[in-house]
Specification:
The structure is a single chain. This protein is an alpha/beta fold and 398 residues long. It has two domains: 21-50 and 296-394, Aspartate Aminotransferase, domain 1; 60-294, Type I PLP-dependent aspartate aminotransferase-like (Major domain) (Aspartate Aminotransferase, domain 2, 3-Layer(aba) Sandwich). The chain has helices spanning 3-20, 60-73, 81-85, 88-101, 112-123, 138-146, 159-168, 193-202, 225-228, 258-267, 269-272, 279-294, 297-316, 335-347, 377-394; strands at 32-34, 37-40, 43-47, 105-109, 129-133, 150-154, 176-181, 206-210, 238-242, 252-256, 327-333, 350-351, 353-355, 365-370. The strands form three sheets. It has a seven-stranded mixed β-sheet with strand order 4-10-9-8-7-5-6, with helices on both faces. A four-stranded mixed β-sheet has the order 1-2-3-12. Strand 7, helix 8 (193-202) and strand 8 (206-210) form a beta-alpha-beta unit. Helix 4 (88-101) packs parallel to helix 12 and helix 5 runs parallel beside helix 6. The chain is globular and about 60 Å long. The termini are far apart.
């Protein structure tokens, strides 16, 4: 048996073990969407694993604009953007992203993963250094490894550790790039942006911030991490993010100076050699950004729901770390009780995802619950009641 066969067999043994114990909760088929509810296996469940933070999926205005683009351009473009794949819908979408974030320009990639991977690997060379937070998203980590730059990581949100690395690298490298998440996808906490900007300026480093889980959520009007801290878009060289979370489409973006974006449009391999996003998708993105600015009640609703859910969990004794976003980690610890609690919740109608090592550090296995504007008070109270009842029964909480 070859080495690849052994790796596959090892995985399949673990996979089949979970399936046999009825503890496998991934790749479940959703048959129908109904607001904050889904139909799976003939059962209606309250969804707490959706990235539709503002409930924009199937929003009437978004649906209408997507249909208009579908009728005008069809289902695809049969081309890469740099050749025949750029439609008026693509141009409008990128301009709208830039205006929403307050930057000069923006570029839309085929996914958020590709946006980070391609931008980082394109910008950096072998005489540069890239430094990321240890909890940065996999797309950031992979982009750093794909680049030819020296790759370093600092302790999560630890400014002293970042300063130590920047000081050590002061004269060794031509270019320095620091990359962080605005909101961390497994912990839900926020990066200390003002201090990061000050450090990067002091040591001549560029700063890139991934807004995947903050766009439409952070800031008084949902404009993200810059608005949240009352800063200027010019304080950060690059903002990146997903177009498939708060925004109900597909793709990813990078926003920044016009000259930087033009450079990426002509040199980033993930853009130059990837087919253009479907016109209906980019029209949906544009419409979603309009809805966010037109309807502040959505942001008010999601903030109210976050407070209700996190407050209830903390009152029961669950550890939710330092979350300040729609991403709510419910720390359990060991994998066995995490999977058992997931099983009970799914059985009783709450869809939530278990997160295990190595996706998170050892002994910090958790349920990752995502709260959205689409949840009603009844939905949240239903989930809290299940977590209270089963948590006490299993001895997770008192």
């Amino acid at each position: 048996m070859g080495v690849f066969d052994k790796r596959i067999d090892t995985f399949l043994a673990e996979y089949n073990d979970l399936r046999e114990k009825d503890l496998y909760y991934y790749l479940q088929q959703v048959d129908q969407l109904d607001g904050a509810h889904v139909w799976i296996g003939g059962r209606r469940m309250v969804m707490f694993s959706s990235y539709s933070y503002l409930g924009l999926l199937k929003h009437p205005k978004v649906q209408e604009r997507a249909r208009e683009a579908l009728d005008r351009f069809g289902t695809g473009t049969h081309g890469v953007r740099i050749l025949a794949g750029t439609t008026a819908a693509h141009v409008e979408c990128e301009q709208r992203i830039a205006s929403f974030l307050g930057t000069e320009d923006a570029i839309a990639y085929s996914s958020g993963y590709v946006a980070n991977l391609s931008t980082i690997s394109t910008l950096l060379g072998r005489h540069d250094v890239v430094i990321t937070d240890k909890l940065s998203h996999a797309s950031i980590i992979d982009g750093c490894m794909l680049s030819s730059a020296e790759f370093q990581r600092f302790k999560h949100n630890d400014l002293d550790d970042l300063k130590r690395l920047l000081e050590a690298d002061a004269d060794r490298f031509e270019g320095k790039l620091v990359i962080v998440d605005a909101v961390y996808s497994m912990d839900g906490d926020v990066c200390p942006l003002p201090e990061l900007v000050a450090l990067c300026r002091e040591y001549g480093a560029w700063l890139m911030v991934d807004e995947a889980h903050s766009l439409g959520v952070l800031g008084k009007t949902g404009h993200g991490i810059i608005e949240y801290f009352g800063m200027s878009p010019q304080d950060v060289e690059m903002l990146s993010g997903s177009l498939s979370k708060t925004l109900p489409a597909v793709g990813g973006f990078v926003a920044g100076r016009h000259d930087l974006i033009q450079f990426l449009r002509h040199t980033a391999r993930g853009f130059v050699f990837s087919a253009a996003l479907p016109p209906a998708a980019v029209a949906a993105i544009t419409a979603s950004l309009d809805v966010i600015e037109e309807d502040p009640s959505l942001i008010a609703a999601v903030r109210r729901n976050i407070q209700r859910f996190v407050g209830g969990l903390n009152e029961m004794g669950y550890d939710t770390l330092n979350t300040k976003s729609c991403v709510i980690p419910i720390i359990i610890g060991k994998p066995e009780p995490t999977l058992e609690l997931t099983s009970r919740l799914h059985r009783d109608g709450m869809f939530v995802s278990p997160i295990l090592h190595p996706a998170v550090p050892m002994n910090t296995c958790r349920l990752r619950a995502n709260v959205t504007a689409g949840h009603t008070d009844e939905d949240i109270d239903f989930a809290l009641d299940l977590l209270r009842r089963h948590g006490k029964d299993m001895g997770i909480i008192k």
